[in-house]
């Protein structure tokens, strides 16, 4: 388990390197996501921020900007709740421009696992969801989402 300060300084560095302006809210949200080891919903993030809680509108904006710069990715579970995790994973507006880069992103996009009991979602970074994707001639894939459902270790 990494020390909280390390996670915060790493998050600060990541925000800076992405070209985004470094703000306390961005750093805190990214640090919480890094520390969690899984994906978090808006509500999870609010809870984890505790006394550093930021208002909902700001939180949404922070997550949007982090996603646009490839620092986080979002996944909709079967409960229709958006969850966020660190790292690039989605076809976001900023990175998916030309057809070739969309194809590459689809190819590299990883799968997720969702527990059907507690709803927890984790990244299956080794499983490239887009790799198995083949659409008929004349069709063009623009997004792919592969979620494996089952039970997490806590729910057995
Ligand atoms: Zn579970
Ligand atoms: Zn993921």
Task: Tell me what the structure shows.
With 156 residues, the chain is α+β, with helices and mostly antiparallel strands. The chain has one domain (4-150): Winged helix-like DNA-binding domain superfamily/Winged helix DNA-binding domain (Arc Repressor Mutant, subunit A). The longest helix is centred in the first third of the chain and has 14 residues, at 4-17. Residues 90-98 have low confidence and may be disordered. The protein has five helices and six strands; from the N terminus they run H-H-E-H-H-E-E-H-E-E-E. A hairpin with a 5-residue loop joins strand 4 and strand 5 (121-128). Helix 1 crosses helix 2 (24-36) and helix 2 crosses helix 4 (56-68). It is globular, with a radius of gyration of 16 Å. The strands form two sheets. A three-stranded antiparallel beta sheet has the order 1-3-2. One zinc ion (ZN) binds at residues 115, 117-118, 120, 152, 154-155. One zinc ion is lined by residues 73, 85, 89, 110, 112, 123.
Could you state the order of secondary-structure elements as H and E?
A: HHEHHEEHEEE
CATH superfamily: Winged helix-like DNA-binding domain superfamily/Winged helix DNA-binding domain
Instruction: Choose one word for the global shape.
Output: globular
Given this structure, which CATH class is correct?
Mainly Alpha
Distance between the termini: 24 Å
- Can you list the strand order of the major beta sheet? 1-3-2
Classify the fold: give the CATH topology. Answer: Arc Repressor Mutant, subunit A
Q: Please give the CATH architecture.
A: Orthogonal Bundle
Total count of helical runs of at least 4 residues: 5
Strand content: 15-25%
Number of strands: 6
Largest sheet: 3 strands, antiparallel
Structural class: alpha+beta
Overall pLDDT confidence: 84
Uncertain segments of ≥5 residues (pLDDT<50)?
90-98
What is the count of structural domains? 1
Helix content: 25-40%
Computed CA radius of gyration, to the nearest angstrom: 16 Å
């Amino acid at each position: 388990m990494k020390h909280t300060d390390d996670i915060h300084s790493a998050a600060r560095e990541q925000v800076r390197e992405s070209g985004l302006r470094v703000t306390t809210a961005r750093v805190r949200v990214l640090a919480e996501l890094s520390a969690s080891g899984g994906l978090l919903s808006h509500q999870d993030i609010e809870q984890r921020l505790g006394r550093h809680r930021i208002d909902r509108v700001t939180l949404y904006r922070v997550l949007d900007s982090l996603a646009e710069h490839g620092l986080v990715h979002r996944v909709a579970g079967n409960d229709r709740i958006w969850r966020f995790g660190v790292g690039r994973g989605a076809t976001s507006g900023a990175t998916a421009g030309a057809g070739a880069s969309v194809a590459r992103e689809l190819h590299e996009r990883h799968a997720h696992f969702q527990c059907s009991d507690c709803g927890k979602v984790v990244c299956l970074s080794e499983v490239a969801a887009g790799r198995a994707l083949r659409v008929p001639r004349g069709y063009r894939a623009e997004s792919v989402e592969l979620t494996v459902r089952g039970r997490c270790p806590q729910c057995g």
